UniProtKB/TrEMBL annotation:
Protein name per UniProt: Phosphopantetheine-binding protein
Domain of life, source organism: Bacteria
Carrier domain span: 1-80
Organism: Paenibacillus profundus
Signal peptide boundaries: none
PROSITE patterns: CARRIER
């Protein structure tokens, strides 16, 4: 699965989970203007872990790595490579 496909899967997942009409690579996920609350972050990360078949490395997870869709995509790619 290439980077664009992973990003699109994450976009679709967030849109589905939050019933949002528009999400793109620059959508802010966490912080004051973020679309995710703490419970949704946990649900999203669990679903990403399941869909992309890797185990989260909590030491590698930072708020910066999940701050927007683009950074989350990069983190997923890096995490998948590290687990395989």
């Amino acid at each position: 699965m290439n980077r664009d496909a992973i990003e699109q899967e994450i976009v679709d997942l967030i849109k589905e989970m939050l019933n949002l009409p528009f999400v793109d690579a620059d959508t802010v996920l966490v912080g004051n203007t973020g679309v995710l609350d703490s419970m949704t972050i946990v649900r999203l990360l669990a679903e990403i872990e399941h869909r992309f078949e890797f185990t989260l490395d909590e030491d590698d997870l930072t708020l910066d790595s999940i701050s927007n869709v683009k950074r989350l995509t990069e983190w997923v790619i890096k995490s998948r490579q590290a687990s395989h």
